[in-house]
Amino acid sequence: MPQKVTINRLTLSAFRNYDHASLNLDGRHVVLTGENGAGKTNLLEAISFFSPGRGLRRAVYADVGKQGADAGFSIFAEVDGMDGTVEIGTGLLPGSETASRRVRINATDAKSADELLDHLRILWLTPAMDGLFTGGASDRRRFIDRLVLSLDPTHGRRASDFERSMKMRNKLLEEGRYDADWIGAIEKQMAGLGVAMKMARSELVSLLAHLADRDGSGSAFPSADLSLTGFLDGMEGLPALDLEDQYIELLQQGRYRDQAAGRTLEGPHRTDLNVLHRDKKIEAGLCSTGEQKALLTGLVLAHAQLTANLTGAAPILLLDEIAAHFDMRRRASLFDLIDQLGGQAFMTGTDRHLFEALGERALQLTVSNGSINVSS
Ligand SMILES: Nc1ncnc2c1ncn2[C@@H]1O[C@H](COP(=O)(O)OP(=O)(O)OP(=O)(O)O)[C@@H](O)[C@H]1O
Fold first, then answer.
1. Is the keyword Protein biosynthesis in the record (predicted)?
2. Under a CB-based contact definition with an 8 Å cutoff, are residues 280 and 288 in contact?
């Protein structure tokens, strides 16, 4: 069983529609219910700031501080986890000109928000992700990259280095007159980085597919078949050096075509994630709204399981508006799967009754106009 990591105390100041809120939690799951606009998602967003990046809304920090105040905000938590109790905090100082937030761990400034990953992992599922299967390939690529990144922080560097090399190649092609050795060197660099990206994504997808395979487990969440397409397809078994050679050849052969197109048409930036509902044998994008939500939730739960397996600690889950799309059987199954992960989940909804099957497993809180109370 992975180590349980829980947020036991949470304090927000001048965050979104909260002046000040202080919560004592007891390690159980937390259900936040309340009317539209009450501040439920804001609370999840605050917790999501305990991970690197801009949180579950990809917010600009200057928008996060309570409007009308002086744009500063702070969020503190006491976390029980791998190394006993740790105090973590993040925020912007009032009147701060800087675009980056401060992160404190045990009253000391962290060098980077990545240090938070030594203490807790936070994963989320929000309604904004609902169009994942019907939207563009770039959304699915970002989804996969975020998953890879959560387990392999070097992936971000790889992707940005690839992007830079590709821009250099595009520029040389656009200028028309280029030195063959120079463009060859850039293409070689792109091949090394591009193939490393492909392999990292493929490894993540195969681990995820294994965990998203719920056949025979009695789960109400459908099994999904996952595959990556769009870049060096059908060459999965080849060693990295062979894949690099293949890609270099494609780039060399594609120079005139790419010059005409004004961009590089082959590469990891063309990858797409295909998700197939196994029982129905149809693409996820053709499934019903509830089925798509179930498939997506299944993927996020598989990611949570993978994170627990690889780090030894169960991630904290933020599940916004999680219950509304699900029938009673799926809700009960969801709560059981969350329990089996062995971590703490924060869930929101407008209707308390949707969470009844959780019973005493969750602390029930009511959110109203930026204040939070234990539900009576
Ligand atoms: N920087 C800010 N300062 C003050 N209030 C803000 C700020 N940002 C957002 N809000 C307010 O927070 C409220 C939205 O909160 P939130 O998104 O958490 O609602 P919710 O309870 O999740 O609602 P729903 O059920 O509709 O999703 C809105 O009324 C919005 O105007």
1. no
2. no
